[in-house]
Amino acid sequence: MKLEESQKLEGAESCSALSNSPKSLRKVLVVHASVGSGHKSAALAIQKAFDMLDAQAELESASAAAMGEPIRPVPYYDVEVLDILQFGRIVFNGDNTASMFTGATRPFYDITWRFILTGRLLWGGGTIWARIMFPKFVEYVDKVRPDAIICTHITAANVAVSARMLLNARFPILCVPTDYEAEGLWPHRYTDLFCVANEHMAETLRARKVPEDRMQITGIPASPAFSETYDAAETRRKFGLPPDKQVVLFQAGATLPRPYVHFRNSIEEILPYIHRFTKMHMVVVAGKDKDYAAHMRREVEQRGLSNMTVLDFVDDMAALMAACDLIVCKSGGLTVTECLCVQTPMVLMGRAYGQEKANVTMLTSTGGAFHVTTSRELLDLLVQVSKHPEITSAILTNASLIRRPHASFDIARATIRLIDADCDELSPLYRRHFMHFYWGHKPAHIR
Question: Considering the entire predicted model, what is its pTM?
């Protein structure tokens, strides 16, 4: 389907063209950055939610037509997922860049993430990002004329704000942080809506002078698959797991192996003791790292560990997670969100830095997760869970208070609402700045 010419109008006319037009096509860009897998996973979850809402609307329209009711146009959302790094003046590999801040360099990343522009001096937004690095994205936005842009990474958000300023456009921009704290470089003053994980994050944005009506607590978007109901017994049969034991899942596979070095070392350090857990069965998911999978299988065979299984990449990860009794994982935003959605207690393993430290702080302060930093602590915790499996019940109850399994749908509906809303031509959202710093209030959380 093609956009009508009325949808190509600039300024205020572009805000109402779709709502007054009989045409039902609406263009939405969901922009991430290929730095790890979480930002893209969140973007794909939002795209999936739009697809499911479209299908639901079509069914409702067909049902109304069958009842003899007047047929109304069904909005169709053409949702495109983009990697902002592919539009850069200099195209670089985000995964490789992220890997530079692991190991001995992690504290430097921690300082950058948690202390830069998170006090009273704050970043508002501006055209600097697009002018210097991303003019190709501005050209693309000018070409497709989106009705909204949803951003799951700060770079995407800042470039989207830049493009809107440079084009004098009026489409809404939604920011979707994929961790349980908002980094200091989000474009605070030029964002139509922040879709945040919980009230903890909303407190942060209030101190940064983000108006209340530009915040919505939606949760972090995970694939709808993680909110479905699965037959645990059938899933265990599929993967060859015992039906009568506590199954502990170690999520050791990742797009970026380097951040998982310490995590994997901790798993190997407890291997000599695994045979003692006669009531437990351990599952290690190696993902697409075939070398690591082969190495772990050799270790399991040499040690004669009949209560440990090593899996490669798993397509139906949601079903496997739901079938387990405990998940040991790193504290990435999407990873912990998926654990919350499948309602399986989690153990956050290892020292955390940057946004992962914020995730650990939030989850442990609410009692929604265990946290261990060494293999010895992990071993002691597994012993306690084996002896007293009921201790995970409290974790699960507390986690339910912050669980938001329908986040992707709430974000999609919020986007639709903003597309349908009237534009305020005098709104400060549309002021143009090359760069904009401003003074905020006292930070809500000590960093």
Answer: 0.90
CA angle 21, 22, 24 (to 5 degrees): 95
pLDDT in tens, 241-286: 999 999 999 998 765 556 678 889 999 999 999 999 999 999 999 9
Q: What is the per-residue pLDDT across 305-320, written as a single tens digit (0 to 9) for each? A: 999 999 999 999 999 9
Quick one: pLDDT at residue 11?
Answer: 39
